[in-house]
Amino acid sequence: MLDKIIPVSKTGRVLSGFGLLALLCWISGDITITTATPGAEFQRMLAGLLHPQWPSLNELIHAILQTISYALLGVALAAVGGFLLSLLFHLRLVRVVCASLRAVHELFWGLLLIQLFGLQPLTGLLAIAIPYTGILAKIYAEIRQEAQQRHKPYLPAQCTALSRFFYTDWPFIKTDFAHYTLYRFECGLRSGTILGFIGLPTLGFQLETAFMQGHYADVTGLLLVFYGLIATIHWWGQFKFWSLYLTAALYYLWPGMSFNVNDIGWLLEQITPAPWREINSSFSTWFYPIVSQQLLPGLWNTLVTGQIALVLSALLGLVLYPLLSNHFGNPITRWTGHLSLVILRSTPELILGFALLLLWGPSLLPAIVALAIHNGAIIGHLTGRHSNNIQLRPDSAQGVNRYSYEITPRIMNQFLVFTFYRWEVIMRESALLGILGLHTLGFFIDSAFESFRLDVALILIIASALLNIGVDSAGRIVRQYLHLPTHRVIERS
Amino acid sequence: MTAAVKQDHFFLDLHCSGVQYDGKQILQPFHLQFPAGQRVAILGASGVGKTTLLKVIFDHLNNTAQKTALIPQQLGLVENLSVYHNVYIGRLDRFSTISNLVNLVTPKANAKQTIQSILNKLSLGNKLNVPCGELSGGQQQRVAIARAIYRQANTLIADEPVANLDQNQAEIALTAMMENHTNCILVLHNTQQALKHCERIIGITNGQITLDSASKQISAQDLTDVYLTRDAG
To answer: What CATH number is attached to the domain comprising A278?
Structure first.
């Protein structure tokens, strides 16, 4: 009897484990709708959605240019830094440094850098450049390693490393490098946008203002501009224009940049734990309340949000992938499906979360649903695209039978790769969504910055980074246990 | 392309105006009639159009809504699903969607019994719950055969269904296929098997039907010609 209830396969066991955990999290977490009239607010949003408006052209162009400039300069810096670090990626120290850089969300870097530079371009572009350096170093190193393994046998044994690099590695990896860097540029645009939520004058700043004032028509207009930028990036974002763009971006941002070396000393002092700065204060009396009142509740809520969101994203991905799979529907449904998934996955979680927060009030629910929608759309998109490689027999079933017996079992492994690859991202974002006011780690980090307790903020940021690194390795362990491939996943269509 | 089917005499009466692909003539025009109850083997060197002919036949049967069991060369099994579920797919169209979905989680007892007995015949008795991806090529081929048998269709269309089986297993599998289908059209590459199990042999050379005769009347020379004239055309 028991073997009928407990799934026998490894996949079944892992999936039901995650499902059960999510259920427990749902029961024990703070998940409610607290607003009295969510329906009325939703109607106002819907009305705004149907009648888009734009703020003055001058402001709009300024916000767009700021967003693009941060993304360009940030990604370009990260590409150079990431490339250099990728050459040293065999060193453990470099790998640890890169892992730490990318484990901290760009908005947390932004919050930290604001203390150093204030609200100015350096903050924005470095907030993107620093974590992206860690990401690109890892990806570049992996691409290079793959190329080397492929071509090593065909090379004379005694050639120098440099000639090996330019004769075998570079010709093969340059397209992969370019491809991934451009994808990162697209991510950079999203990051640049949401940096507006901490005060930088990008599209996100205007979005937040419009949200706060309930000007949903402006929100729609700004989102349309944002989708337009992302949708046309293949056309205007090509590398051949980059030298022109970079010069222009530097020229545009240069007047706003300033830097005082003494500020570094001040920041270092501020982030040193208070008891080490002052005499007569004990570390434990300072540290204990931080752990019990901020760190543990923040970690707990982040985990609850992340675990539920992961399972919901996976379910949503499974429901959504047929929308753009060639094995289902007709060209019109597929085109509509494709468009809706592009919109859902392009919208940053932070913006979705903000809208849902206004609807439902503060609890973990808005964060969970925002994460599930965004990541479910990404998983659905990747899975649907992957399903197009499948060739079916001429006598294969149709409709739900085809979905459940033919396609879903075949895409299951790749679907799990996509899902577990999103795990770390979901966890990082669920910490971040706290800055909207829900009590995940981001809330406590944001509050610590607001009360100028930078030492506390740093400890909480380190905690969130460790959480991400932990989830990243947990994801690797699960993938190994299920014998899933561990290769890179590129979201770009 | 096709004329009316005289259902009393023929399970298939097929006029085909030829098949072209990328400007190349894959199959020349032909007219083939298959009397009910006949077992037919299609022979020919590789690349002469056997699979295309089989596809034309299968599409035609499908369009005339005749229930057909198919064993394609690429088998089309679902590696992540168990042997049981892969065989069960043969009857997906006979149950409601709900019942099919439930069967994914808790297999049906009676279906399990039927499938087990088919698998026993094909020496796969101990593989019922094994995922198909873990089976060898020959075992997978037998799973595809089991699915075709489980489908309980009058007509079987199969493309080299025993290519990966040893002689003994091939005999058992062919016998099982013949027993469970009234009408059979098989592409085979082993002429001995073809002559033993089928009453009629159709030979194809370069897209053209060059031999169509009862097995009993076929000489060794006829068979050699089917394979030899390939370069001449």
So the answer is: 1.10.3720.10
A4: contact with B, CB 8 A cutoff: yes
- Phi-psi group of B65: left, alpha or beta (phi > 0 → left; psi -120 to 50 → alpha; rest → beta): left
Cα-Cα-Cα-Cα torsion B87, B93, B97, B98, nearest 10 degrees, comes to -60
For residue B151, give the chain A residue with the closest CA: A395
Give the pLDDT confidence score for residue A85 in this predicted structure. Answer: 95
DSSP letter assigned to residue A397: -
Chain A partners of B85 at a C-beta cutoff of 8 Å?
A: 405
Tokens of A198: 């901490």
Q: Residue A40 burial (CB < 10 Å; 0-12/13-18/19+)?
A: exposed
Q: Residues 6 or more apart from B3 whose CB is under 8 A from it?
A: B13, B15
Spatial CA neighbour of B47 closest among B174, B189, B185: B189
Could you give the CA distance from residue A359 to residue A366 in angstroms, rounded to a whole number? 8
> What was the pLDDT predicted at A342?
87
pLDDT recorded at residue A32:
84
Cβ contacts of B101 on chain A, cutoff 8 Å: 400, 404
Nearest to A409 among B58, B62, B78 (CB): B78
Q: Is residue A323, in this structure, part of any structural domain at all?
A: yes
- Is A373 part of a structural domain of the chain? yes
Return the structure tokens found at A399.
Answer: 């409709």
Please provide the DSSP assignment of A34-52 as one string. --S-HHHHHHHHHHHHHS-
Q: How far apart are CA B170 and CA B216, in angstroms?
A: 21
Q: What are B's interface residues with A at a Cβ cutoff of 8 A?
A: 55, 58-59, 62, 68, 70, 72, 74, 76, 78-81, 85, 89, 92-93, 97, 100-101, 104, 106, 129, 131
The one-character DSSP state at A186 is: H
Residue A323 is part of which domain span? Answer: 9-51+273-493
A404 DSSP 8-state letter: I
Domain total in chain A: 2
Which positions of chain B have pLDDT values less than 50? 1-7, 230-233
Entry pTM:
0.87
Q: A415 vs A5, A270, A288, CA distance in Å? A: 24, 45, 42
Residue type, A51: H
Residues in chain A with pLDDT < 50?
1-2, 493
Give the pLDDT confidence score for residue B25 in this predicted structure.
85
Residue A268 lies in a domain: no
Q: Does domain B38-67+155-233 have CATH number 3.40.50.300?
A: yes
Indicate whether A410 and A332 sit together in one domain: yes
* The domain boundary residue, chosen from A259, A293, A310: A259
Residue B5: the pLDDT is 44
Q: What are the residues whose beta carbons fall under 8 Å from the beta carbon of A88, sequence distance 6 or more?
A: A94
pLDDT for position A252: 93
A234 plus A314 within the same structural domain: no
What is the ipTM for the molecules in this complex?
0.82
Which residues on A lie below 8 Å from B76 (Cβ)? Answer: 391-393, 396
Please tell me the predicted confidence (pLDDT) of residue A484: 85
Last residue of a domain, one of A214, A232, A259: A259
Contact between residue A205 and residue A350 where contact means Cβ atoms under 8 Å apart: no
Residue of A nearest to B76 (CA): A393
User: What one-character-per-residue DSSP string does A95-108 give?
Assistant: HHHHHHHHHS-HHH
Angle at B65 between CA B64 and CA B66, to 5 degrees: 95
Q: Identify the DSSP state of B212.
A: E
Other beta carbons within 10 Å of A243: 10
Q: Distance, in angstroms, between A410 CA and closest chain B CA?
A: 6
The domain ranges of chain B are 38-67+155-233, 75-152
